[in-house]
Amino acid sequence: MQQxxxxxxxxxxxxxxxxxxxxxxxxxxxxxxxHGLDIAAIMQVAHGRRTIETMRIVAxxxxxxxxxxxxxxxxxxxxxxIITIDGAHTLLDSIPxxxxxxxxxxxxxxxxxxxxxxxxxxxxTMVTADDVVNGKPHPEPYMTAARLLGLSPDDCIVVxxxxxxxAAATAAGMxxxxxxxTHAYDELVGATVIAGKLRxxxxxxxxxxxxxxxxxxx
Length: 218
Known about the structure:
By secondary structure, the protein is α/β, with parallel strands linked by helices. It has helices spanning 21-35, 39-46, 51-58, 64-76, 88-93, 108-117, 140-149, 163-171, and strands at residues 2-6, 8-11, 18-19, 83-84, 100-103, 126-127, 156-160, 175-179, 193-195, 201-205, 211-215.
């Protein structure tokens, strides 16, 4: 069992608290067919990135602002196939509402719809694609979350499942817990600690009112 202490925990959403793989893949497959693109190439870069940034990589010739707007509008109304990651409810219930945030590459409307579809709380602090100029792996999303919480980077611990998100956390000067839910252990090399599953993470009260984060060894 390893232990870290912090003031707040910053969670990625997809792959950490919920699994939207089926839904996300379905939408990218439809978009790839529409534009004659290689779905395998899209999926290699899509996880952990904002929609428009994925599109910039795979189809820079398209009118991307409108393409991204239409793509995300379709995602917001589609919650079929979304599931809650085991341990998400218990973990979030163990943390004071002002001591955690969500930092996601999706839009605010999309994140809210997916959380509500699974009965998960929408935190007071949430940083989405709508709130930043640069998405992960740029540090801006996590730096923005720390600023909104009134904290310094070393007060925060990031929980991420994707290399792009872990790179963002490292660039922001934050410690991180990599959850091996969507990527293999050797792809999460940027993490401070790696948890095999979300339920391997527990939070209790730490010293001076801080959070003690316990990570079971897998």
